[in-house]
C-alpha cells in the first residue's frame, strides 16, 4: 500500500501561516491592513410608553394596511390612553373602545425594532386574550384549491367555539403551509402564544406589494387594500364589497362591539396619516434643494 501513497504531503500554506513557519504577509501593520473589519452593532431600539393604558382584558392589535382599513369602522371619542414611540417616533396609539383595548400599530419598523416594540406592548397591556389583524398578499398566496372569492384567513393558539363556527361556515379559512408568515403580526402571535395567552391572527387579503422586511417602507394608498380581487380585476371596489358580508359575520361571531359597518370615518390612525403627510412634504422639499 505504501508505494501507492507516496511521500507525506507538505502542509498547505495559508495567508497567515506558511510552510516555513513564517508569515506570508510580512509586518504586523500589513496584517492589520488586510484583516476584515468588524461591523459595529446597531444600538438597541429605544421603545417608550407614554401614558397609562388599561391592563388585562381583551386586546386587539390593528396592524398596518389591514388595521388601517378596519379602523375606519371604529368610532373613537376619547383621547388616546397611551402612545408608543420607537427611537423618538410614534409607532402606536392605545385606546379603549367599549371595554376592548385597541392598539393602532404602524408596521413600518426595521427588523431590529420589532421584538423590543412587541414585547413592550405585551408587557404593558398584560392581555387576557389577543386578536391581531393584519393582511396577506393575495396574488402570491398558495391555496390548495383557489376559492371563488378572496378569503379571510386565520391562525389561532387554541380552538374556540366562535372560531370553529366561522371556519365551519366558510367565513374564515385556516392559514396553511407552505405559505410563510413574518413581520410584526406573526411576532405578536408568537409572543402571545408563548405567554399562554389565547391568541388569534386574522389576515385580510391585499394586492399591495409587501415592503421589504427591513424597509424602505413606502406608504400605500388606503384604497390599495381593495384595488383588485380574483373575480373583479377591473372593479376597484369589487374585493371590498366581496369582503363586507364575511367581515360582518366575523365581527358578529367574535363579538366585536368596537367595530361597526355603518361607521366609515374612524380616525384611529390619524397620527400616522399626519406623519406620512409630513414625510411627503420633506421629500418634496429635498427635491428642490
Automatic annotation (TrEMBL):
Residues 1-37 are annotated as: Disordered. This is Proteasome assembly chaperone 1. It comes from the Eukaryota. It comes from Leucosporidium creatinivorum.
Amino acid at each position: 500500500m505504501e508505494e501507492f501513497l507516496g511521500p507525506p504531503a507538505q502542509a498547505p500554506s495559508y495567508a497567515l501561516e506558511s510552510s516555513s513557519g513564517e508569515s506570508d504577509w510580512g509586518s504586523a501593520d500589513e496584517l492589520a491592513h488586510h484583516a476584515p473589519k468588524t461591523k459595529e452593532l446597531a444600538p438597541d431600539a429605544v421603545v417608550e410608553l407614554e401614558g397609562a393604558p388599561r391592563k388585562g382584558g381583551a386586546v386587539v392589535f390593528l396592524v398596518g394596511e389591514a388595521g388601517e382599513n378596519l379602523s375606519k369602522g371604529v368610532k373613537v371619542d376619547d383621547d388616546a390612553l397611551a402612545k408608543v414611540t420607537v427611537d423618538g417616533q410614534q409607532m402606536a396609539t392605545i385606546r379603549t373602545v367599549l371595554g376592548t383595548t385597541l392598539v393602532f400599530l404602524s408596521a413600518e419598523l426595521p427588523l431590529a425594532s420589532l421584538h423590543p416594540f412587541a414585547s413592550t406592548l405585551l408587557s404593558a397591556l398584560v392581555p387576557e386574550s389577543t386578536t391581531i389583524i393584519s393582511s396577506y398578499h393575495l396574488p402570491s398566496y398558495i391555496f390548495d384549491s383557489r376559492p371563488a372569492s378572496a378569503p379571510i384567513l386565520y391562525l389561532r393558539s387554541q380552538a374556540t367555539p366562535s372560531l370553529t363556527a366561522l371556519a365551519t361556515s366558510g367565513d374564515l379559512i385556516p392559514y396553511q403551509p407552505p405559505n410563510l408568515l413574518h413581520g410584526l403580526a406573526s411576532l405578536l402571535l408568537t409572543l402571545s402564544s408563548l405567554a399562554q395567552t389565547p391568541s388569534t391572527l386574522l389576515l385580510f387579503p391585499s394586492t399591495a406589494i409587501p415592503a421589504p422586511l427591513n424597509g424602505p417602507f413606502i406608504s400605500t394608498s388606503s384604497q390599495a387594500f381593495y384595488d383588485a380581487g380574483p373575480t373583479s380585476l377591473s372593479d376597484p371596489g369589487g374585493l371590498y364589497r366581496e369582503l363586507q358580508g364575511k367581515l360582518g359575520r366575523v365581527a358578529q361571531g367574535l363579538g366585536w362591539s368596537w367595530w361597526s359597518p355603518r361607521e366609515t370615518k374612524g380616525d384611529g390612525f390619524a397620527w400616522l396619516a399626519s406623519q406620512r403627510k409630513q414625510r411627503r412634504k420633506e421629500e418634496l422639499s429635498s427635491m428642490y434643494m
